């Protein structure tokens, strides 16, 4: 089977000079120009037909005068227009001109191949655009941009403009930020100082309670010495007495006197 019969004309004529005698450069250029002009004419006619049809065409619905079309919708329309012009540029006529022998032998297969190619091309382009929109979060970004533009239209005061002096412009932009950070740090410092004061008061209260317990212990010890004249308690007796005093005050919990 001769595979050259199914090769494009450009591939079979690769060995010949394009502009030389016997070459097909001039004819190929004429075919390309005629195909491009036909595709452009079909694209213009299709666009004019869609404009006349109105809502039935693929163009976005025209809103009231002065209404702004969302940028997400503009992006979708741009992709659709690009695909239409891409298909129009690679028309079926140009496809059959490249594969004449295949078209002459099996025109139905050529048509199916072309339809499959166009469908796969459109699907691939739409999938790539969808991935780009998802990765960049374009829908949310474009919607926020529309909102910013709409809010800017409602403003009556003039927008901020640089003064032309870099130091003043930088100062006007950075000073509010630094003031905000300073206020936040001051609030944190005040909260920390309040917590420190509460902790200091708790420590002082604990120290006062300990001193009061010591004073009560000494008073009870002196009262015990007075009640038992002539008896001087030793170190172990003093420790036992102190433990009993602390236990009576609820500070020390001892069940066995030997633990002291």
UniProtKB/TrEMBL annotation:
This is Polyamine-modulated factor 1-like isoform X1. GO terms for cellular component: MIS12/MIND type complex; nucleus. GO terms for biological process: cell division; chromosome segregation. It comes from Zalophus californianus (California sealion). Residues 1-28, 40-68 are annotated as: Disordered. It is found in: Chromosome, Centromere, Kinetochore; Nucleus. InterPro entries: PMF1/Nnf1 (IPR007128). Its main location: nucleus.
């Amino acid at each position: 089977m001769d595979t050259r019969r199914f090769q494009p004309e450009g591939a079979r004529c690769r060995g010949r000079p394009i502009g030389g005698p016997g070459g097909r450069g001039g004819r190929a250029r004429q075919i390309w120009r005629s195909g491009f002009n036909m595709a452009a004419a079909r694209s213009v006619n299709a666009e004019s037909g869609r404009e006349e049809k109105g809502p039935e065409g693929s163009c976005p619905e025209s809103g009231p005068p002065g209404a702004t079309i969302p940028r997400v919708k503009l992006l979708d329309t741009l992709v659709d227009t690009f695909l239409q012009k891409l298909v129009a540029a690679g028309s079926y006529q140009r496809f059959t001109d490249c594969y004449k022998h295949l078209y002459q032998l099996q025109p139905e297969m050529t048509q199916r191949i072309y339809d499959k190619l166009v469908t796969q091309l459109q699907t691939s382009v739409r999938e790539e655009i969808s991935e780009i929109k998802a990765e960049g979060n374009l829908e949310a970004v474009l919607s926020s941009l529309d909102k910013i533009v709409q809010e800017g239209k409602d403003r009556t005061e003039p927008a901020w403009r640089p003064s032309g002096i870099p130091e003043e412009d930088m100062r006007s932009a950075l000073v509010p930020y630094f003031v905000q950070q300073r206020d936040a740090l001051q609030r944190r410092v005040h909260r920390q100082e309040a917590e420190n004061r509460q902790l200091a008061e708790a420590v002082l209260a604990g120290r006062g309670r300990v001193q009061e317990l010591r004073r009560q212990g000494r008073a009870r010890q002196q009262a015990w010495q007075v009640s038992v004249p002539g008896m001087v308690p030793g170190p172990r007796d003093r420790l036992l007495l102190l433990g009993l005093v602390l236990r009576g005050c609820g500070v020390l919990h001892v069940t066995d006197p030997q633990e002291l």
